[in-house]
């Protein structure tokens, strides 16, 4: 198997989710640091335009979105499992809630003036403007929660999570960590970085103790490589063959030219040949002068598959 290469930047919350999963599974990995804002020409050569962070690369297979990234890491290292029986379904549902509802409540809460200073205070004024413009373009016309509404909702969410730990279990769904823990953790990790506002966590002591447990899954020291090294790996590799039955829910056959686009924000389509449509995953083959022939993978949930026009 090819090496695991994570394209990320240190302050990305979703990248923190994957970094903790890699630590939990004790998987060695290589690190490529990408820009926090567009343009990202080296990453675009691999993904075809997907702009979110992180992206996982295994040879010439490129995985977009932490939902599918975590499934891939589970296939590579089944133990310890992110989806322990009998709570696998609960874990996936709670993870989806955390990655969407909880995350988009934390973001407007954190980016109040006091929190924004903690998160972005290291940036120069011109860099701050670039960051703001990039995130505005990324969000587009997607609904935004007002900070006052986030401040009203977030304490309730934190209390509900705290209540899940009331029975004394070390993790949200019992004795073992699951994908739910890592998805909730990355949101609260980002919240904790806004020190002026993180005092809200003091109201939920069990949740704070759980955060310390999650933080104990140390990242370790990945091998740092450059973007050109990752592109060379893609060029010299062959994508893994498609596996499993083709599940057609769109009337689009294998081999058709398609686009795959996030359904909520960062609506940048990736175009290519549809080579896989499994129960949980889409995969499209595309070629790039720098990356060669690659297959880009997306989860079904949260993404739109369309025939290319």
Spatial separation of the terminal alpha carbons:
36 Å
Strand order of the largest sheet: 5-2-1-3-4-9-8-7-6-10
Strand elements, count: 10
CATH topology of the largest domain: Glutaredoxin
Your description of this structure?
This protein has 309 residues and is an alpha/beta fold. It folds into 2 domains: 4-79 and 222-307, Glutaredoxin (3-Layer(aba) Sandwich), CATH 3.40.30; 88-215, Glutathione S-transferase Yfyf (Class Pi), Chain A, domain 2 (Up-down Bundle). Helices cover 42% and strands 17% of the residues. Strand 1, helix 1 and strand 2 (30-33) form a beta-alpha-beta unit. It is globular. The model has no long low-confidence stretch (mean pLDDT 96). Residues 84-240 form the GST C-terminal domain. It comes from Noviherbaspirillum suwonense. Residues 2-81 form the GST N-terminal domain. This is Glutathione S-transferase.
Task: List the topology elements.
Blueprint lengths: L3 E5 L4 H12 L5 E4 L7 H7 L7 E4 L2 E4 L1 H11 L11 H23 L2 H8 L4 H15 L7 H18 L14 H15 L11 H11 L7 E2 L2 H9 L21 E6 L7 E8 L3 E8 L3 E8 L3 E5 L2
Parallel strand pairs: 1-2, 2-5, 4-9
Antiparallel strand pairs: 1-3, 3-4, 6-7, 6-10, 7-8, 8-9
């Amino acid at each position: 198997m090819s090496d695991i290469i994570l394209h990320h930047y240190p302050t990305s919350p979703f990248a923190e989710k994957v970094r903790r999963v890699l630590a939990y599974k004790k998987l060695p990995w290589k690190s490529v640091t990408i820009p926090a804002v567009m343009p990202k020409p080296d990453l675009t050569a691999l993904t075809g335009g997907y702009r979110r962070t992180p992206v996982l690369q295994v040879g010439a297979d490129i995985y977009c979105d932490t939902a599918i990234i975590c499934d891939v890491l589970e296939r590579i290292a089944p133990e310890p499992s992110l989806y322990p029986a009998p709570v696998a379904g609960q874990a996936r549902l709670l993870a989806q809630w955390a990655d969407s509802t909880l995350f988009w409540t934390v973001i407007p809460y954190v980016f109040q003036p006091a929190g924004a200073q903690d998160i972005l205070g290291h940036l120069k004024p011109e860099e701050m403007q670039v960051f703001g413009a990039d995130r505005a373009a990324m969000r587009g016309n997607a609904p935004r929660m007002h900070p006052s509404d986030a401040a009203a909702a977030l304490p309730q969410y934190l209390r509900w999570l705290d209540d899940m730990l009331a029975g004394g279990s070390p993790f949200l769904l019992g004795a073992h960590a699951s994908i739910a823990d890592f998805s909730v953790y990355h949101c609260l990790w980002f919240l904790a970085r806004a020190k002026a506002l993180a005092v809200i966590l003091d109201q939920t002591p069990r949740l704070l103790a759980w955060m310390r447990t999650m933080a104990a899954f140390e990242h370790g020291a990945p091998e740092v490589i450059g973007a050109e090294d990752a592109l060379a790996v893609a060029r010299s590799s062959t994508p893994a063959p498609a596996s499993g039955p083709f599940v057609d829910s769109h009337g689009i056959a294998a081999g058709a030219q398609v686009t795959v686009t996030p359904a909520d924000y960062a609506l940048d389509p990736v175009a290519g040949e549809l080579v896989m449509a499994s129960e949980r995953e889409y995969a499209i083959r595309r070629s790039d002068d720098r990356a060669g022939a690659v297959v880009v993978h997306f989860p079904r949930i949260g993404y739109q598959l369309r025939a290319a026009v």
